[in-house]
Write a structure and sequence with these properties.
Elements lengths: L5 E5 L7 H12 L6 E5 L6 H11 L8 E5 L7 H11 L7 E5 L7 H13 L5 E5 L7 H13 L5 E5 L7 H16 L1
Parallel strand pairs: 1-2, 2-3, 3-4, 4-5, 5-6
């Protein structure tokens, strides 16, 4: 397993809890040559401790170029998302990032932390953030839009923020970020 370069795990709609995530994270630590990781954990019970464990596992994945995490419907709150954002900062070789936090309890402070993490990922050419059905307002999307503007290598962007608390001002900030990316 230490020579593995691609790993896709589909664990949606199960009863995976933090203990299962601990085992998964332990296995990932030995995969130092991993370049592509996709983990689908939607509709489980991973909670704050589970997301913290995933985040700390990133420090061992220095060669990772593609990351896809589906964490929808897990009741992950701000602290868990902030810790995941801290872990993302270690992934300096990342070129493609796909994060799905569909219908969790994400608020603006977590979006601000996530936007700070994005600034460390200067090699990103593909970014998909699916943040639908959370509690984001203008402050959160403005922070994300500001970071997206800074991603000079970005070629593909998908930003899902359906059913949040975003106002016209937030929508305008997203539009500015997209226009700037087109001009780069």
């Amino acid at each position: 397993m230490k020579h593995m370069q691609l790993l896709h795990l589909y664990l949606d709609s199960n009863n995976v809890q933090s203990q299962g995530i601990n085992s998964l994270s332990s296995g990932l630590k030995s995969m130092k040559k991993l370049k592509s990781l996709k983990i689908l954990l939607g509709e489980n019970q991973i909670g704050e401790e589970g997301i913290r464990t995933i985040a700390t596992g990133f420090e061992h994945l220095r060669e990772l170029q593609e990351l896809s995490l589906f964490l929808g419907w897990n009741c992950i709150q701000n602290q868990g998302i902030k810790e995941l954002a801290d872990g993302l900062k270690n992934l300096r070789k990342l070129q493609s990032l796909d994060l799905n936090f569909y219908q969790n309890d994400m608020e603006d402070e977590a979006a601000v932390e996530l936007s700070t993490a994005l600034l460390h990922l200067t090699g990103l050419s593909q970014l998909q953030l699916m943040l639908n059905y959370n509690k984001l307002s203008t402050e959160g999307v403005t922070a994300l839009a500001g970071s997206i503007k800074q991603l000079k290598k970005l070629k593909k962007l998908t930003l899902g923020v359906l059913n949040n608390l975003i106002t016209d001002e937030g929508a305008l900030e997203i539009e500015k970020a997209i226009i700037l990316q087109v001009l780069l």
